Amino acid sequence: MKIELDNGNGGVVIESDVIAQYAGQSAVECFGIVGMATVNMKDGIVKLLRGDSISKGVNVTVEENNAIAIDFHIIVAYGVSISTVCENLMSTVRYKVEEFTGMLVEKINVFVEGVRVID
Question: What CATH code is carried by the domain that includes residue 82?
Fold first, then answer.
């Protein structure tokens, strides 16, 4: 899916995968986030994503009013406040993606898929 913007001087096209990669990288930098997750629907097994595959745990859609909606599937660190970690993730990612794209981030949904003990 592509996001098309017209800035008056011409058009800008941004692939949603680019926004997903940027949002995913911004999210894993937040305190308490171990990483992005993917769920195998057949087995129900959660897998921690690393490196370039981080965007598979992020889903970016563009709403009718040209605003962005982002879904995160994350794994959190054991012993942290999930609500605090999610609030931090939402505010950090909203700010960074809006600055990066110049578009409004309308909503961010966070799905906690697992908890891991980190060393």
Answer: 3.30.70.1350
For 63-98, how does the pLDDT look when each residue is reduced to its tens digit (9 = 90+)?
Answer: 878 789 999 999 999 999 999 999 999 999 999 999
**Structural domain for 90, as ranges:** 2-116
Tell me how many domains the chain contains: 1
End-to-end CA distance of the chain: 38
Query: What global pTM score does this model have?
Result: 0.85
